Amino acid sequence: MRYLNILLLIILFSGCSDNIEDGNETIQGLYNDIFFRSTMSSAHIDQSGRLVIEGSSTETVRLQVARPEVGIYEITADNDNQATFGLDSQIFITQGENTGGRIEIEKITENSVTGNFFFDARLNGVGERLNFQKGVFFEVPFEEPNDTGGGNGDDGGDDIINENFQALVDGSDFNAETIQSSTANNTLTIIGGQADVFINITMPTDLGTGDHDITADGGQTATYTQGGNTESAIEGTLTIDILNDNEASGSFSFTTENGIEITQGSFEIALQ
Fold it and tell me: The whole model's pTM is what?
């Protein structure tokens, strides 16, 4: 009996190795019941005044809330509180049917931020569902000291980026109501959403300025989704005006496999 009890204790403790535990400068939790823990994490206030918290290992999680303040922030399709998860160059976003969640900022100082979160997301806002639960971020450091006093901050002079993503879809206006971006495996993904329509553009993070081909299986790709049906671009052009650690802007046009024409596309987003 003594040896049986010892064996049971060994099994009990070995089965708890993936328990969620606070650690220094980390983001962790369970996505689809798979343990995630960041090897790198950071926080910053973007040029629109939103708090962004990011962590990465082989996957990437990105959390965004409207203000850098202690509080509870509900994630919905029509506000600035968002979550994204990058996995194998795919991006799951908190847009579409049965998505949402909550981010709680428990503590924020000049140097770090601590809190918890959970969310449900969908691939490109329409596809496969991803559930992230028991999420915590603990003492995630700011890239630069954060002014939590609620004032205007320093006089660094950074211009606020008026984010936009727009295009013509077979000649009809598309003006994104939501814009989400994520970086994973050296790939930047930008998704603009309007109701049940999504335009997705992907590119390498080190793509230079100028014109680049959009193809079905190249470095630059695009998709058009409406009502849950996704079509890939078979040809098109992506023009990069600016792409750095802080922002991305450019223009695009492409034709999908079933002949949908996306023209006069343009985007300007803050990345930091």
Answer: 0.68
